[in-house]
Write the structure tokens for this entry.
Amino acid sequence: MGIDVHALQLLRWASLKSNGLGKVATIGRQGVNVPARELTKHVSLPPDYQYPRYCEDLLVKVFGAERVDSFDNSDFEGCTFVADFNKPLASPCQYTTVIDFGCVEHIYNVPQAMRNISLLCADGGQILHCLPANNFCGHGFWQFSPELFFSLYSKQNGYSETQVFVVNIADETVWYEVIAPRNGKRVAMWSDTPLYVLCRTVQRGDFSHENVQQSDYVFMWNKDTEGAVSTNAQTLHSSLTAALKRNKFARLIYRKLAVLLGLKDDGLRRNPSLIKRHVSDLILNLPPRASQRR
């Protein structure tokens, strides 16, 4: 996907949270997909900025990166290192910031790709993802759930400060922060519009990917059937909702009622597992507005 407006804002937010990007590795050589006029609305550009095709100048001249290396399966875009992320990586270096803005969905062996990303990240460094969630079928091999990042980038696996957002790609002003799943309840969501999932995490010391399990099943394994009933009820609700949306007539009626009742949205605003966050507030490090916590 490269750096679009949402990825650009993620860079701004992560740079402030980490006091700079430091040495940067990008998974795939990242293009800059923000038009020049739009770019100047979000960041201050130096006089000598030439709007190149790829991101290195942007990361160095605007975000103060010390160095930017790129990793790709081929040198067709002039990457720094050719590496197949389906296979274990012999890392030539470790980096303060590792960026995956639309690459892992094109890699078949996602677990190995995620290990490689963590191998590239230095102790105390940050990992950033901007990946397809809903309604990207056909774009790559995979679409990603917030659950993956909470379960993988957990404290017991050697990570901290993990935050996950889902984003309607057509709305550049708002992200929805995902409340980590707990008590056997899944974070379920649907949308009529394409969604990104954004993640930032910090790697602390030795990491492990040996114990990555879906949280509601862990809850059931460690509890009695009460947890299973809660989870199964939620799964049933999700299945019924999906069945309703597959029926064209029911879908038409649903949409007309939603418009009449003023409920038509992208499926995010009324989800109790999400907190509406204005991107400008995040970058200014402001707390979520009280009326938008649910």
